[in-house]
Amino acid sequence: MVRSGETTQAEHEDVIFDCGLLITFSEEEILALRRALGHYLESCRQEGKKNSEERDFFIGIRPVIERIGAELKSRPRLPRRFDFMHHEMSTLNAALTSYLKVCEQKIAHGVTLPFRAERAIIKAILARIPEEYIRGAMQVHAELAARRNVRR
Fold this sequence. Notes:
single chain; mainly alpha; two-stranded antiparallel ribbon
């Protein structure tokens, strides 16, 4: 018997399904991601020096950025598939968006190398993230449904 507020195993699996993202990156994408993460980390550190709220934010996201950065460095061969949890995806998205703005500012001021190529790469990654997230969620959902059907 399940009491109010408790979940069954099947319901618990639906909660687990709120996973993250599994995505493959090319070598060029990994380099752009690493630059974006490095830039974002430094930007957050600089903002943290200015006020305590930003410092608390920086302290909270620093381990996430470092874990993503370490993950990007640790895969020696292609294809490189990476998994990001839901909370890491927002940090990754923020880092990419922030670096995209930097690329666009540099290009507007006439500095095109390497920013034009990285802008295109980052735009492509930002477009792929929601698609891959939905694809992964649909796959997990199908796997959970198949498991439930096997149990019946």
